[in-house]
Amino acid sequence: MEIRINKEIKDYHESLFMGLSMRQFMCSLGAVGAAVGIYFGLSNVLDKETVSWLCIVCAAPLAAAGFFNYNGMNFEQFVVAYIYSEFLCSGVRTYQSENYIYEAYKEVLKDVSVRKEKTKKGKKKNPENSSAINTD
């Protein structure tokens, strides 16, 4: 007997603050902290428009990391899997099949072929004694 469960119930995640999970909340908090730090750290050095663009560029990846989900992986797991597949284990992969049964019976097959050769050598037909019918 099979009981169907809705997908929404399977994907339930507990929310902590304003409907965000702990991970989303911490990443959002980190993005706000980075934006505030960049604004107050660089507002005396650069003009306001440049500082505001820097805040957006630096805070957006942090905020997006909290909401990122690809094939059940969060952002950090995805980055590790990407680096592993594209850089550490990259290269040409060739397929080579291995016949386990042949490897297991290789010696048996050699013995059988040697026996067949011995029996062929012992039973050579003589063309003079053959009972072929000449129709000349």
Distance between the termini: 83 Å
H/E series, N to C? HHHHHH
Mean pLDDT: 82
Helical content (DSSP H or I, runs of 4+) = 55-70%
Record field, number of beta strands? 0
Give me the Rg, rounded. Answer: 37 Å
Give the amount of beta strand, in percent. Answer: under 5%
Number of helices: 6
Largest sheet: none
Report on this model:
The structure is a single chain. With 136 residues, this protein is mostly helical. Helices cover 60% and strands 0% of the residues. The chain is built from six helices and no strands. It has helices at residues 7-10, 22-42, 48-67, 75-88, 100-104, 106-122. The radius of gyration is 37 Å and the shape is elongated. The N and C termini lie far apart (83 Å). The model has no long low-confidence stretch (mean pLDDT 82).
Describe the structure concisely for a colleague:
The protein is mainly α. It contains six helices and no strands.
Q: What brief labels describe this structure?
A:
136 residues; 6 helices
